[in-house]
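stuck on this fold:
=====
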Amino acid sequence: MKTNIYSVYVKTGESALGGTDSNVFIQLTGTNGRSESIHLPPQDIFSFEAGSIDKFVLEVPDLGELTRCCIGHDGSSDADWFVESVRVLDDETSREWTFTFNMNLTTEETGTQAACVDL
């Protein structure tokens, strides 16, 4: 199966306690299938902090037109995380998708550490 390179930009909300140090995972679904759950390793100590935009490059099977994005964390450290959006660029075709979350992922307030958004 053909693989694609996707650039993924995760935007954390501006709220004072919006960031997380937990392990973050993403899964993308498209018209050609679904990726595995992929760990997004922090690039530095400022990854996933309030107001940040973190970039990751994923090489996964060609998923076609993206239809769904699921993102979450394992709750291991600073588990309160406000995810604003996830933008995905297909580096080969210049296709682009933006998934707007605008939600807090925490077991204390919302009872969940993951969420999915459909386009």
User: Anything to note?
Assistant: The two ends are 24 Å apart (CA to CA).
